[in-house]
Amino acid sequence: MASNQAKTGISLSEHSPFAASGKEVPAALSMMVDSMTSMIERAKIDIESVDQRARADLENIDQRARKDVALLDQRAREDIQKVDQKARKDLAIIDKRAREDHDLLRKVRKARESIS
Hints:
116 residues; rod-shaped
């Protein structure tokens, strides 16, 4: 058998979370929902802001990386040109010396042939 009797431990002067008018609880709940909704909206705005900043940072990093790669590519091409020019000069010197040695050998052979 259910008992519908009021609790005797609560006096009439105490404020219960359940007001007789029924307005306090809905107002408190409404305020709590409004506060939570506001916090969620701020969190969404913060996330969007962080996301935008992250995208901008990534774009900046990407642009800097592209510039760095272009600069490295340019320097590498310049280095290759320098090495190529040096190699061509070295080959020209080696070719000149080889021709001189060849001419000298020819002269030696002719001299040996004329002696024999």
